[in-house]
Amino acid sequence: MSAEVQATAIAHVNMALVKYWGKRDPELFLPWTSSLSMTLDAFWTTTTVRFSTEAGEDQVKLDGAPVAGEQQRRVSRFLDLVRSRAGRTGRAVVDSTNTVPTGAGLASSSSAFAALALATSSACGLSLDPAALSRLARRGSGSASRSIFGGFALWRAGHDDESSYAEPVPAKEDPQFDPVMVVALVDTGHKTVTSRDAMRRTVETSPLFRPWADSAAADLKEMQDAVARGDLDTIGEVAERNALGMHATMLAARPAVRYFTPNTVAVLDAVLELRRAGVSAYYTMDAGPNVKILCHRANADVVAAAVDAAVGCPTAVAGAGPAARLVVRP
Ligand code: PMV
């Protein structure tokens, strides 16, 4: 007879304002630099993990379709990690749905592995505190370490498995400080170079990687202080320069990795135009062509209209989102 146990978790996507780019230890997902993000309310992943005592291959479904190949193996390796810690055997059935396009530089892996970490560990009977959960999520995807927390989160690079995890960052509590990200969905197709491959190539070949990594500590300090005092203009300025620096490291890799498209650049120009017109708006980009524009909530419509006029692509507005949570307990 087989006994089943299941859990369902929800985790939200986070967008880095000071980026994680490059692994010091690819096995343990230890990053070169610490990073800081905002968790978003508009995009999340819901994941159910069901363990049975039966042997066999794990089954993984994403948005209703079976996942195969490297994506499936990646999830299975993660499940193995949890199974071995919990002393559990037996196959798992994983069912995951995203409200954000997958693999398009919209940080879908941050919410995906945070939800998977919480659902899997709970279904296995492990009760992990947020720091331990963050360490575990990190082993699936580095950015997932930050999606365990709501609001702003700082992932301390650390130097080993134990010391590399995220924690909440205190933000100014003030109704005037209500930042949002206007996400310009320039292109939601699958990226051609995964962030994992792009990171590896950048670290191994880009002469600009080390200077960028060396500058990250100062960006992080400035960002933390700006979040604490609710200073959107400084947050935006630091986020913009940090993201451009990250993309510069990729452009200098051999061969170059370029996620920008002409429409990406048109949106960046539209943001500069908004600033010249006195609107506080700042951009950041990840491993894909899409642009996230940080602004005050009161300006979200103006920013979305500027994106529409520039490239006519859809936009979504996201404010600060909640921490990962269990919705069905084992
Ligand atoms: O965790 P990954 O492998 O999806 O890498 C995320 C990298 C960036 O999104 C580009 C930056 C970040 O800090 O999230």
UniProtKB/TrEMBL annotation:
InterPro entries: GHMP_kinase_C_sf (IPR036554), Mev_decarb (IPR005935), Mev_diP_decarb (IPR029765), MVD-like_N (IPR053859), Mvd1_C (IPR041431), Ribosomal_Su5_D2-typ_SF (IPR020568), Ribsml_uS5_D2-typ_fold_subgr (IPR014721). It comes from the Bacteria. The keyword Translocase does not apply. Residues 11-166 form the Diphosphomevalonate decarboxylase-like N-terminal domain. Residues 182-312 form the Mvd1 C-terminal domain. Keywords: ATP-binding, Lipid biosynthesis, Lipid metabolism, Lyase, Nucleotide-binding. It is an enzyme of class 4 (lyase). Its EC number is 4.1.1.33. Pfam families: MDD_C, MVD-like_N. The keyword Repeat does not apply. Belongs to the diphosphomevalonate decarboxylase family. This is diphosphomevalonate decarboxylase. It comes from Lentzea roselyniae.
